[in-house]
User: Fold these one by one.
Assistant:
Number 1:
Amino acid sequence: MAGATDVDDTVETFVVYDLFRAFWTRVVGLFFREIAERNAHLIPRTGPVMFVVAPHHNQFVDPVILLMHAMRRVYFLTAAASMRRKFIGFYGRCLRGIPVERQQDLARRCSGKIFLEDRFAEPTVISGHDTRFTQEVQVGMKLMLPNSVGQARVEAIESDTRLRISSEMRELAALELLTQAGGTAYKVAPHVNQDDMYRAVYDRLNKGECIGIFPEGGSHDRTEMLPLKAGATIMALGATAANPELGLKIVPTGLNYFHPSKFRSRAVIDFGQPIDVPAELVEKYRQGGDAKRQACDDFLSIVADGLKQVTLNTPDLETLKLIQAGRRLYQPTQHSLTMAQQVELTRRFIKGYTVYRDLPAVAELRDRMADYNMQLRYYGIRDHQVETMRVGRAEAGALFVWRVVWLLIMGLIALPGTVINAPVFVVTSVFSKRKARAALAASTVKVRALDVIATWKILIALVLVPFLYTVYSVLAVVFVRRAPTWAQTDVIKQVSTMSTVAIYLWAWALASFMSYTALVFGEQAVDIVKSIRPLFLTLVVGSEHTELLARQRQELSDDITELVNELGPRIYPEFSTTRISEQLGDGLTTHSNLINESADAFHRKMRMGEQALRQRINSTIGSRQTSPQSEPTEETPLAGPSEDKPNQRRGSKYAFNPPTPRTMETLNSISPMEFLSTVTGAVLGTGSPSAESSDGKHEAGSQFEQTRRSTPEQKKGLFYFT
């Protein structure tokens, strides 16, 4: 009977686990627009597995993304402090999380202040002002300084104002606090016995189950991984030492987000080659002492190397932006890369840049890319939008009007759902930023605490959205039952014949449908909004100026591609410019449903209409051109092949200079009606704005016409490129 009960409990636990796993994966799937995976086929289908996941950039969202793609039940090690929270602890227990007690979570502040009385003669002796060491501190506790700048184990307590630590604190920040006038505040944390946690981990692994662990110890928003904790290696070596036939596999898992805190952003999860636990390190672990510590350090280095193969690590944000810009400009083939392949290509760019960053050719390209990115920031556009600006005024005007029409269609579809969910957007934004500020104040590793924002957005929305829909549904019932005379339409009369519960449920379903439709069609509308600005710039400044930026991009892209093709084989022997997509591997994207497909169909219709419109405009303009094509002038050089010497990479011909104040004053003086008139004239080919306007308007229109038909000298004042 006892065995049967255990089996029933296990089955019931798995049912609860599977239900909550399905729930959270759907919720997180709604938060992200696209989640791609690479190399999930490398995950062992049977036997014990330990997923070592990094970087920990999205707090409680990271485990769910692993659950979406691991295809096996994974049980995570979770901070016991989080498990003690009412809401998070409930879900953590349902997902069979293993609590891990951390010393920093149990730390408490003590009375008085401490200082180093003699830093050089007695660096391990801590003295105190108004302290009560004999009452508040015990031998074996950990003495911790503010902001985690230093910590040490208490070796002996000599009096209320004097104790001895096991080793001196060598960190500069710790020494500054301990030697400052008046001393520093401090905390103590009790020794934590982790035997129960290790026993639970070993039990799961011996049953052939999977464990998930974040070896950095906590979430953060840095561009590089934090130093890894030794806990994962102790678990792996300890479990294998206790059971030599275990066959444990370590799977390095990398999480890469494009914008981790933004709603409807994108993410990629990458699984590395499984790592076996080396038998020689297991033997060292059994010996204990220094050999045990050396075995853990050696295995930690192996795991860290595996994680570096599936993560993006740069020393700072500027370097990461530079690498991503270079990856976008690189043109290996004419085929587009999937999101997972883009992440892998970025990883290879980081490795190449780390090796060759000091080469003169790399330094020269780095400066040119910085200049190009500065121009993009000035124009307010993205790199992928530069090609959109390579159109004439007539074509730009037609596309502008066309996309505005589609924007109105998409916007009208998304408007109802956007309105009813506006309170959710406002409240989640305000509260998540407040939580981020609190997390930043309590952390020494976070930069802006972006790692907690997505978690709090999801948690707040899970409470607020059902509450709002309940309110809307109740209001719908009241409106139907007490509809005024003017609202007594046939539809309302028919609905009023339904029961109150039915009306409530139909209102709830309608609100859900409107919200999801707004979600999908709204993001399509946002994409259209982003594509309008390049067309607007072309209409205002003219294609003769935007063409220069496009040429600069093309030359920069050619030079980056040439350099990568030259240096790539030195790092990756299998490098081939014609098989880049095969080398990077395939990735699976998880987003497919009826509404998504409907929105994509709308988007395809818009693109097909654009192509037909552009062909018609180009054919019309071509038929109107009766004069032969003019010869290229000095101001408009041909974008032909370079005449540079062999093996000498050309420098940038374009030096960016912002518009003059006079030019900006001219552009700012253009009213919306004058701009619309100019767009209409460009589309219809009717020339300049109407000359029958008033004197003031005619003057402004003449200024705009001067901008459109600039002489070489005027062009130099507008956007100066040399």
Number 2:
Amino acid sequence: MRCQRFMTQWNFFVPTFPSGKQACFYLSHSKILTSKMSTNENANTPSARLNRFKNKGKDSTEMRRRRIEVNVELRKAKKDDQMLKRRNVSTLPDDATSPLQENRGNQVLAHWSVEEIVKGVNSNNMELQLQATQAARKLLSREKQPPIDNIIRAGLIPKFVSFLGKTDCSPIQFESAWALTNIASGTSEQTKAVVDGGAIPAFISLLASPHTHISEQAVWALGNIAGDGSAYRDLVIKYGAIEPLLSLLAVPDLSSLASGYLRNVTWTLSNLCRNKNPAPPIEAIQQILPTLVRLLHHDDPEVLADTCWAISYLTDGSNDRIEVVVKTGLVPQLVRLLGCSELPIMTPSLRAIGNIVTGTDEQTQIVIDSGALAVFPSLLSHHKNNIQKEAAWTMSNITAGRQDQIQRVIDHGLVPYLIGVLRKGDFKSQKEAVWAVTNYTSGGTIDQIVYLVQAGVLEPLLNLLSTKDSKTVLVILDAVSNIFMAAEKINETEKLCLMIEECGGLDRIEALQSHENEQVYRASSTIIEKYFSAEEEEDQNVVPDSTADSYTFQIQDSTPNSFNF
């Protein structure tokens, strides 16, 4: 693209990421764990994407557009409803819950004060310690305003961490693990209190617990800690969590594992893959990837969704990191999942595919060769705006590729779908489609640009010049300039001018000469001066005849006023 001076300032959509943390909630009269995500993050917080441009005879780093994170607390992001529903209940096995009877001789009070809990936890009576810890867990499992800070200020975290090591009393291990998990699901400061209390190595040790429900609770807690951000994610990795986590899945048949258990381990692995600045250590990624490839072939929708999210995190980076993922051979399976009808799987698989095509032309070609383009008609016309937007963004990086890759876009009939997004998509989707068209015009052959105009791109593209987003206007003007340059090469400039005037584009370009943005003013003035300055002197009713050898650019309708180009 020629507009590199402003591309690096382009603001894009907020990524929809899974929540990095979960809290366990207690339901009375049953032995059930319920998870609920924190929803403190403002979902409308702007996020930015660094725009790069793919190779069209230029250095490939100039031509690509990637997302960057801007200190958004993604751990608080509310994931799609899929995450809330999936983790809504997790029933413990009967033999595991038997020591956790809520009414053990009616000795457990319905409501303990924090002061009573402190007294019980600090007693020398194991039974009283267990009751107090269970009471704390219940307080921390309240859906509304759990007293996390009060528990922290009471100095209970070190005691709970010490209880994690009581192998002779599995119920207190479980209750303290549950309580600490919910504390770690809170703010960064609350998570820090758990980490500072020495919980990470204690939880890693519990991964090998002979009691499945305790092991699973440790998995959950480590997932919440890792989901806090890059620093704690790397600390969990540094303490050696990956190997024991992966060993939990080292069974011949993953279907032999309880579905809730497998989902929790997969979710925690995904949190070990997420967050940037810095990205996870490359050694850790290489250690986790074979298991992710295996999980990608599982049949559980929720396992597939979190696995796709993990892959989307790992591909959101430099070309060498994308290559580490691509060389595992997982792209064809990712494309198959892209074509599924389930939105919770489609969304992260599309994000992952979109990230991969920000890489090299060779990495993009692997996506194309895996059949991804066949799925895009449905994605570009999807009823969910976010899917349309991400699909158009993905297309923008494919059309920023080689001319043979642009041709594959044409051959799969995707140009009319992109034009459809320009016409009817929501504005965020339209912006991405504008990029797709402009990249296409920047690197396409004359024949390919002729086809684009014949397909009817001019009117919906030029209509968007009325937007107040000056960056989008500049990208559109760049596309118009590219189309004019193609017209000049085949001596069809006059016909293109007539087509632009016919669809009202000239009026819109002229209006931009009084635009408050100087770059918009200059770009529009350049087009007017170069191609339209002598128009008043011409008889607009005289249209040059097309010869058999000329390229024909024509407006889609067949009205008598149509122009041939």
Number 3:
Amino acid sequence: MGNKQEEPGLFERDVGVSDDVRTSESTYGDAEEVLALQDLDPALNAKMHLVNNAIDEIGWTNYHWKLFVLNGFGYAVDSLVLLLQSNISGPAFKEFGEIGYDNAQTIATYVGMLVGALFWGMGADIIGRRWAFNVSLFISAVATIVSGAAPDWVSLGVFTALVGFGAGGNLILDTTVFLEYLPSNKQWALTFLACWWGIGQAVTGFICWGFLVPPQWNCESADNCPRDSNQGWRYVMYTSGALVFVMSIARVTVVRLQETPKYRLGTGEDAELVETLQSIAKKYNRPCSLTFEKLDACGTVKTAHSASRYSFQESFVHLRGLFATKRIGISTVLIWFSWTLIGLAYPLFYVFLNSYLASRGAYNGVGTFETWRNYTLTNISGIFGPVLAAWMCNIRILGRKYTMAIGALVTMAFFFAYTVVSTPTQDVGFSCAIAFCINIYYGTLYAYTPEVLPSAHRATGNGIAVGCNRIMGIISAVVASTADTGTVAPIYICAALYLGMAIISVIFPFEPYGRRSS
């Protein structure tokens, strides 16, 4: 009988494709990498082609399902952290006597996430994906729990920044690690991975709904708000921190992650790379014809690292690699600009939204319970945007570029329509629609970014992109403290920014559909 191969699962066949993924290596010989024609390191190109052939030969396995969940935890934590600070800062500020800068926690979170994105991004290209992947969530978990015991506004800001630092690299590491193990006909699953962002938001909504509504845990005003009668926000942090801690433990126990094959290409660890892929193939009874001799015959990779990997020169190598050719350079700049635009439009819209709706009477008759119910419904709606995006981006006529364009344009339309909202029912309806549509764009951008970046410099480029997003978040927090938030003009501006994102999506120089990540 021989070894029985694992039965195909839900993802075992690609959307709209009927060919069995377990085809011979020759089937993949003509497949093309996204950056194959960009005159990069010829040895790296040749080896990348062989590694992609081997990953395609193995196909989708239960190992990928585990990565989907464990990498998804990082997405969930990133969104959880952003929402936690916005939800607990009000009750905490009230307890601490409303002394200090009221938007300090928002700025602290974004500063921490900015530093984290750059640190973990560049670090993952220098020391590898594995250590950053395993450590970042643990730092977030500990800092979140400690934040719940903060004695004053300043210390809370410090620990909030540490939470952001730990979580700041998740969007980079999760997409990078998942992509570098994915068979090419499942790269759409990278967009699907973004549904965990909405799951994180929904979980945050439920936790806050449970602890920030009961009057016995929440003060009425800052005039009489001792710690023992305002424990709600602390319970939110303790619960969230414990949840993230469980996630961090699962990351190092459920899957003992080996360094990704495409990172090892750049470091010259060809033997270890072959061993990793062969071990996966053996565990799941899949073929894998890749050998050390095949990789060795391609030559030595010379452009992935500097002579000393732990030097300033190493950082410059990764930055320079993002502009290796004119076309790659244009792609890099447009990606960073897209992250900058949505980093401004998304938070700025919500900065102005509450004041604008209040001025229109949209919150009349809405109590605390209804507020958190609507908040949770909106967050749940965001889960399904990336699900639709994953299907759309795998349609030939749309691909990644036009999926992003459609998501941005539909979001823009709802933003403009929001200016007529005047009732609570309209508010929750439009909020749910926007949460769904915006994640079509956001989820695809999350996936597109690592797909078109060179593997040796992928985490650095991704980290800078997310860093641009965090800088705009800081700016939006400052604007919230100084600008007139009752006018309609900022909502029109935010909507117009999405038109800019749609245009950029169409002119991106690379379309990953039908090609393999380099």
